[in-house]
Amino acid sequence: MSTYLHLRAVPPSALRNSATWFQRLFEDDWNTVRERIGRHREEVLDKLYGDVETLYSGIPPNHAPEGPRTQVVLGGRPVFHTDSALPPFLLLTASQVTGVAAYLKAADFDGLWRHARMQLLRPYSVPDAEAEVRGLFAATHRDLTAFYAQTAHYGDAVVKWLMV
User: Fold this and answer.
1) How far apart are the C-alpha atoms of 3 and 104, rounded to whole Å?
2) d(Cα 30, Cα 52) in Å, to the nearest integer?
3) Cis peptide preceding 12, ω within 30 of 0
4) Helix crossing, 130-154 with 109-121: angle to 10°?
5) Which of 4, 116, 100, 2 lies closest to 51 in space, CA to CA?
C-alpha cells in the first residue's frame, strides 16, 4: 500500500466546507493529476513526506515556530473526513499560501539541508548516498517552490490530503 500527500490549488470562491467536496477534489485519474502537476496546480509527495516536513520545520524539540515554514507540508486547518479512520484534509488560505510562497522563494536550500542533513540521511546506510538523497530533496524543494509560487500568483488556496 502506498501513501501520498496530495497538495491541490483551489480558487477560494470554489471552496466548500465539506469533507465530501474535498474528497472529490482528489478523485481524478493519474493522467489528470500529472497534467496539473506539470502546470504547478497540484503536487504529490510520496511516503517520505514526513522527511520533507523535517527539512522545513525541523524535529522536536527544535521544531520551527508556527509560520510559513511549518505550513509547507503538514500545515493547515484540519477539515475532518466523514470516515474518522481517514486523515483529515488540511486547508491553507490564499493568504497563508502567499506567505509559504514567499518563504520558499527566500529559503536557502543549502542551509535547510545542513540543518536537517543528519536526520534525513539516517535511513540510508550507504556512505555515498548523500549526493543522491540531497538531489531528491533539492528537486522536491524546487517543485514545492514552483507549486506555491504559481498558486500564490493566482490567489488560490491549497487543500492537502494524505492518501493511504
Assistant:
1) 24
2) 22
3) no
4) 130
5) 116
> What is d(CA 78, CA 163) in angstroms, rounded to the nearest whole number?
15
CA atoms within 13 A on the CB side of 40: 17
Identify the H or E element spanning 101: helix 94-106
Cβ distance 93 to 105 under 8 Å?
no
59 or 133: which leads in pLDDT: 133
How far is it, in rounded angstroms, from Cα 133 to Cα 121?
7
Strands (E), 11-62: 42-45
Q: What gap in Å lies between CA 30 and CA 38, rounded to an integer?
A: 12
Q: Between the CA of residue 18 and those of 24, 26, 91, 108, what are the distances in Å?
A: 10, 13, 12, 37
Using a cut of 0.85, tell me whether the model's pTM lies above it: yes
Residue 77: strand, helix, or coil: strand
Q: pLDDT tens digits for 53-76?
A: 999 987 655 566 677 888 999 999
State the DSSP H helix or E strand holding residue 93, giving kind and residue range, or none if neither: none
Beta bridge partners of 158: 9, 92
**Grid cell of 127 as nine digits:** 556512505
